[in-house]
């Protein structure tokens, strides 16, 4: 069974950094591209970015709202994808989800909540 | 960036009725469109991908149609568990983008 488990969320002050992790199991992690999405409280879904698998170059793409502040990386040996978030803003407050795939992902984690507040 | 506009914003129907949800793209996404269902406090659930293909385990009362810029999600014979928020997602180009959602509520 495919499982994705996010961790690392919490309360952080504006301007600080936070790193989220997403651990995958039940599939060959290195074969798949991985994505991050988020959802602000009471709002709609927003794509954050993705990282392709190594066979596709391992390259990344980001939403304009996070480009230059967020970085996605992966450790295929540990089956983990990371979301490094720097220079956090109050508007980054959201539930963050990781998914397997980068087109129409069918497997989502349960999410980890990030709250940016002073 | 491709903007997706969903309509209506809210749809009030009764169990057993049929629902038609619309998603319009600001430019062509070919058939690279998916539909998701989300219940409060839960992660989104993939219903339809490639505009008209049902995801694994999705009942056949859910169907998708369209291509280019106009897409429809049709739900026949609404069940109580179908009342949720529905989002369309385009993956024809980056950045990926979602519609703002349609809330399907019980009348």
Overall description:
The complex is a heterodimer of chains A (118) and B (107). By secondary structure, chain A is mainly β. Helices cover 0% and strands 49% of the residues of chain A. Chain A contains no helices and 11 strands. Chain A is globular, with a radius of gyration of 13 Å. In chain A, 40% of the residues are buried. Chain B is mainly beta and 107 residues long. Chain B has no helices and 11 strands. Chain B has strands at residues 4-7, 10-13, 19-25, 33-38, 45-49, 53-54, 62-67, 70-75, 85-90, 97-98, 102-106. In chain B, the strands form 2 sheets. In chain B, strands 2, 4, 5, 6, 9, 10 and 11 form a 7-stranded mixed sheet that branches. Chain B has a 4-stranded antiparallel sheet with strand order 1-3-8-7, with no helix packed on it. In chain B, β9 (85-90) and β10 (97-98) form a beta hairpin. Chain B is globular, with a radius of gyration of 13 Å. Chain B starts with a strand and ends with a strand. Chains A and B meet through β5 of A and β4 and β10 of B.
Provide a compact summary of the structure:
The complex is a heterodimer of chains A (118) and B (107). By secondary structure, chain A is mainly β. Chain A has strands spanning 3-7, 10-12, 18-25, 34-39, 45-51, 60-62, 70-75, 80-85, 94-100, 107-108, 112-116.
Q: Give the termini separation of chain B.
A: 36 Å
The number of strands of chain B is 11
Spatial extent as radius of gyration of chain A: 13 Å
What structural category arises from helix and sheet content of chain A?
Answer: mainly beta
Average predicted local confidence, pLDDT of chain B? 97
List low-pLDDT spans of chain B. none
Largest interface: A-B, 18 and 23 residues
Q: Note the gap between the termini of chain A.
A: 40 Å
Give unreliable regions of chain A as ranges.
none
Measured on Cα atoms, how large is the radius of gyration of chain B?
13 Å
Quaternary structure classification: heterodimer
- Beta-strand percentage of chain A? over 45%
């Amino acid at each position: 069974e495919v499982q994705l488990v996010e961790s690392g969320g919490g309360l952080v002050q504006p301007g600080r950094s936070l790193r989220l992790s997403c651990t995958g199991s039940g599939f060959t992690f290195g074969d798949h591209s991985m994505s991050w999405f988020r959802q602000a409280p009471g709002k709609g879904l927003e794509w954050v970015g993705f990282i392709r698998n190594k066979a596709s170059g391992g390259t990344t793409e980001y939403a304009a709202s996070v480009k230059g502040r967020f970085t996605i990386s992966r450790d295929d040996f540990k089956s983990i994808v990371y979301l490094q978030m720097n220079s956090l803003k109050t508007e980054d407050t959201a539930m963050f989800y990781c998914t397997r795939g980068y087109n129409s992902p069918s497997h989502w984690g349960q999410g980890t909540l990030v709250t940016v507040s002073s | 960036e491709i903007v997706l506009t969903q309509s209506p914003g809210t749809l009030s129907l009764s169990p057993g009725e049929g629902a038609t949800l619309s998603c319009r793209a600001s430019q062509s996404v070919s058939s690279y469109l998916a539909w998701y269902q989300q219940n409060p406090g839960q992660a989104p659930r993939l219903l339809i991908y490639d505009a008209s293909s049902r995801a694994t385990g999705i009942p056949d009362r859910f169907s998708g149609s369209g291509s280019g810029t106009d897409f429809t999600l049709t739900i026949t014979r609404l069940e109580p568990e179908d009342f949720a928020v529905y989002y369309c997602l385009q993956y024809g180009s980056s950045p990926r983008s979602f519609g703002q959602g349609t809330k399907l509520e019980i009348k």
